[in-house]
Amino acid sequence: MKEGGMDAIKLEGGSPARINAVKAIVEAGIVVVGHVGLTPEPINSVGGFIPQGKNAASAIKLVETALALHEAGCFVVILECVLPHMAVATTSALRIPTIGIELGLFAMVKCKSYLRKNTIDCLKTLIPLPL
């Protein structure tokens, strides 16, 4: 990470294996960014490019995943393509900042998805939102 000039890594989703990975990485002294909602890498596992949190089961899973990432040690959680009411609920449940991309506009900050190819650029262009 030092040689690459990185300050943090981003991990998507909240499977038990992913949560264990977050814990291990944080314990090694590396900063981790969590990512829930629409996660571009495993896109097929969430049903394609559709807003997340549309029904009760996916809404509960969204909040539980964000909480698990928080408890595992993530310092911020990205909410991508999350319905506004779910972004508010998830942000309210956490004690760490949230970043909203696309429909997650009711997070603590927002950024545009045209920067998706480089999350670091996205994190450098955060726009604070009043809650």
From TrEMBL:
It is an enzyme of class 2 (transferase). Keywords: Transferase. Pfam families: Pantoate_transf. One of its GO terms (biological process) is pantothenate biosynthetic process. The keyword Cell membrane does not apply. InterPro entries: Pantoate_hydroxy_MeTrfase (IPR003700), Pyrv/PenolPyrv_kinase-like_dom (IPR015813), Pyrv_kinase-like_dom_sf (IPR040442). Belongs to the PanB family. This is 3-methyl-2-oxobutanoate hydroxymethyltransferase.
